[in-house]
Amino acid sequence: MTTVAIVLIVSVFAFAVLGVPLAWSLGLSSLCAILTTGTISLGMLAQRMYTGGAVYAFLAIFFFIFAGNIMTYGGLSKRLIRFANGLVGHHTGGTSIVCTLACTFFAAISGSSIATTAAIGGMLYPELKDYGYPDDYAATLPAVGGVLGIVIPPSVTFIVYGTTLNISVGKLLFSGVVPGILGSIALSVMCYIFAKKRNYPKGEKMNRKEFWKVAWEAGPALLTPLIILGGIYSGLFTPTESAAVAVIYALLISFFVYKDMTLKDFGSVLIDSSISTATILMMVGLSKSSSYVVTVSGLPETILNGFASFTDSPIVILLLINILFLIIGMLMEANAAIVMMTPLLLPLMKAFGVDTIQFGIVMSFNLCIGLITPPVGICMLMGNQLAGSKLSAALKAVAPMLLMSLIILMLITYIPALTTWLPGFLAE
Predict the structure, then answer these.
(1) Which of 81, 84, 72, 184 is nearest to 118 (CA)?
(2) Average confidence (pLDDT) per 10 residues, the chain, 428 residues
């Protein structure tokens, strides 16, 4: 049966190379593997697709995406930028630090790395250029800041991972808080160091009255993640219910507080959110069929036995897993990688005593790094396109930030408390 798994994995990459969309690549590869066995019913493919997507918790994916898009159209990004500018814009390299903080704030609302890079980058690139930041460096800032959207709650990737394993989505969301904050602080420090070294200018300091006005305007938007996490922590609502609450709150803010959103915008937001959700669910459903074929093939046991014969050290195992997912993150979309690889590697993680929550955040952080590394690196490509820089120059500029990301990855890998401490306060 291991041959079946090999056929599945090879065909996935073959279809991807041919330019077939990833979701369909997963489905077609599952079909190839099933035809190879001759023992697995074709009806099982459809059944697994249906059961993979027919999960109540997946409603949260649509609602979080919907809420994020509403806030984007509702003038959220410009208010967050103004607030961040009031906090740190007057320091050395202030504009670059503003970009980092604005990405952090926006990611905590949208839950999307791509949306964060596009929204914040699109608004700040002109200002970065006005202050003399080179195009290659300007391209990297919102790209690296944007990838925090995968780990900072609310995170669609965490929802996919949690429902795949039927574990607490609420705990997973809380597990991303500390790594997300660490990433934001580290990136801000690097921006300050680069600015000192390269003599980037300071921004203008707001007076107290102006700052409090900006803070008051940004306040309703900044309350969004607090409402989501606070509601979950207090037991007022589940993660899925919190996503619905986020939508209602976003609508009230966008229509009645900020008043930047129109009924025409609402229609566009609804269509965009539906398309994004359908894409993810299609990918998840087809990935479920692929993971089923892999599971029945006996490949997870083969991997477990192979690693066990190679080493009995959890330290070495975690290092190898990190290397594996860094490579996967360069080639595959995060949600598809989560659904496809989790059934393969979870038995190995359990055998070596790795916490399920910790494994989820480690895997997600690796995939988050993949968003700024070639050949896929969609956030890096988007940032480069918006800044109009040469890709080779942008990749060179992002190298120190990649190194910083790898250091944080090692910290959350080998210090489990960084990811498990905060979720430990959340009741089962």
Answers:
(1) 72
(2) 68 72 70 71 69 69 79 75 79 81 77 74 76 81 78 79 78 85 87 85 78 84 79 76 84 83 82 80 70 66 69 82 81 73 79 85 84 71 72 78 87 88 69
